[in-house]
Structures are given as structure tokens and as C-alpha cells.
């Protein structure tokens, strides 16, 4: 089963240093006066602000839509915002409000997630249920687990004879595929992998078994192929996966090797014979495989596109939104790129040891950040050629064609060609939002445009995380927060 991570309510605050006013001023006109103890960005025309210990909601005129009364309020999304109140033990319990400030779901749940389509997943006392964002109940709190909806269905789980069993519900809460499986995966392309009695197969959205449950494991699957693991030993076993090999253990504790291949998802006919120690998913028509602890890349016909000789491979293609490249690492500490859109191009190996660390790697930007042996960061384009030499101490993710960099202890920004569009000169620098990026210089913050012009000079307290949103940005003057408008 795919692991489902329930995110804790991330509450990134723009917080003042005390509750006592400090006389301060700015030269830039304030749209909403700095009278709040903390402030969040505007979303959907509304923003959460703190007065004393409580949070409320204001509109873009600065008027309260809802007076402060909650311990926390998240940003509005699709007309609703998560709110929190402390329980008797000091823990936040989560509820929901609409844009009028009406409480549609009482804050007595944890966790609570606002899913796509206006469905709310909530939990109390270890049981999960569903409601509409309006508060109307879809199903009561009765499941041990409810997953995310994929293609209209979500996996659910309850314990049967003290063991977890899984099925699927639709958006109305109806159990459309009975709880019966030991493990399941989410639906995609109309299919889901399921496991019963230690064997895996594939079902469709009606619950019909289309690939018999006979495999030791099933990996990825799409509209035409699925990858499978199968041992030649006829044992009832549990599967042991490590990053580069799959084994099964029988009732006597004996290990058996498992080999991976691929088959047609409609007929079950084997398309790529089981021969690999591990087999990653196909993205953009290619998958990387492992054999004898060496990695290579094959296409959907099974033809080897990159020899199985590399020490490591990393897929950056991220289906539907990533860069169409695989990063190849050789045993000598060099790396190169295999571009799935130009698979016959010569692979250029560079003297880089690794990828630069990434916070979220949004992908799709057309550049790969790499680190050399001296821990300096540069950029390789998707052709495999160097765009920016390794000279930066820090280089963050590219977003909308720009990346924040650090050189000689100062921050600036480069574009996808490697050009320094903002020279390194700031003690901190944010990303562009609505054409402006926040910066800090000499202990004060302002906003710079894409051409490097300081459109709003440094005059506010350090507000590097306060970006423009809905045409406004939260700024701090002294120890109070207010809002300015985007002058662009």
C-alpha cells in the first residue's frame, strides 16, 4: 500500500517580537495600517491576522470579517480555511470556517484535511470519516484509515481479526469494493494493485480482477504495462524490499531471490521477461533497472537504452510535471544526463559528485543543479551541457525561470541561462511573487523586481517570508504588522 502521510497543520507565521507598540515608520504608504501582532498573506481576498493571543480574518479594506477567536487560522482555499483551538491538554483541534467566518465544522478533530472537490477527511479518537466542507456528513467516523481520492475512489481500512484489511469507497461514501485485501494501492489509469494471501494482482474500478493475484509484488502500472516481481520458487512468503533487490522469505526463514519484469495490463502477457533485481516505474517511456548492483535504463519494449553499468541513477522526470531527464552516476564520481526527449544524444559526463539538495524540486524548469568536489554548485541544462559553472555556495530550486543563489556570503538571483539577473548583494532574498521578490539589506527589507530595481526600498523589519499575494504583502513596522499594495 502506498504510504499516506497526514500533514500536520503547517502554520508559518509573520510574528511580531512583542505585544508592546514601538514607534516606527516607513516611507511606503500602508494600505492596511500596522496594528496587528502577526499577519498571514491574502488568499481569495481574505487574510488571517492576530490580535493578542487570538486570530481573526480581515478583508482587503482591513475590516474584520471575523473577529479574533481562534488559536490559529490557515489560508483560505476554495472558500474555506482550517482553524484550530487548544483542547484541555494544550493540543490544537482542527475545524473549518467559510469566507463569512461561519464555523462549518467544529474544531474538535485531528487531523482534518480539506481534499479536492470540497470533501473533508477528519478523525477523532482514532476513527476517520468524511464530510462536505459545508459540514454535511458523508460518512460517520468508522474507518481506521481513509486515503486520498484518486479517480473518484479512495482506499479505506479497518481491522478484521486484528489485521488491517482494505477496500475502496466512492465520493458519496459508498463502499464500492468490499474490505477484503491485505494491502492495496491507489487507482490510476483505471487500475489498482491489490494483495490477498500474500499474492498481488490488479483490479479495475468495478472491483473485477483483471490480472490474477499470483505475483510476489507489483510495482508501477499505467494504461498499458505493469511491473511485477516473481520468484521461481513455489513458496508462500513475505516480500523483503531493499532499494536494489527484492527477496521473499518462506516459512522456514529461507530467502529466495525475486526477479522483476513487465507485462501487458489488459492481457497479462509478459512483455519484458523477469530478469532484473529491481524495476522502477516508466516515465516518459523509460524506466531504470538494477542488475547485479548496477543500473541502466530500458524503454517500454525492453530494449536497453543506457547500458547497465552505472553506480546510481535518479529520475527527475516526475510524471506530468518534471524535467525529462535521468541523472547517471558512474563509479568514478562523475554524473551526466539521459534526456528522454533525445535518447540517442551522447551522454556528457561532468566532474560533479551529486545533485544539489532540493527543498521540493518542483521540476519542469529545464535545469539541473549539481555539486562539485569542492561543494560548489553549478547548473547543467537538459542537453547535458553546463549552463552555469560551479561557483555558488548555495543555489535553490528554479521557480518560474529563476533561482536564488549565494556567493561570497551574499544572495542574488540567476536565470535559466546562468545569467546573474540580480547580483549577490543581499543578506537574504526571496522568490518572485507577482513580479516582486522580498530582500533584506542592512537589517531592513524591501522588494526588488526582475530587472534588479529596488521598487520598494529597504524600510521594513525583516520580512523575507512575506511575499505578495492577491496584490498585497504583509510587512512589519516596529513590532506591528500591516499590509502594503503591489505598486506594479
From TrEMBL:
<keyword id="KW-0732">Signal</keyword>
<dbReference type="Pfam" id="PF14903">
    <property type="entry name" value="WG_beta_rep"/>
</dbReference>
<dbReference type="InterPro" id="IPR032774">
    <property type="entry name" value="WG_beta_rep"/>
</dbReference>
<protein>
    <submittedName>
        <fullName>WG repeat-containing protein</fullName>
    </submittedName>
</protein>
<feature type="signal peptide">
    <location>
        <begin position="1"/>
        <end position="24"/>
    </location>
</feature>
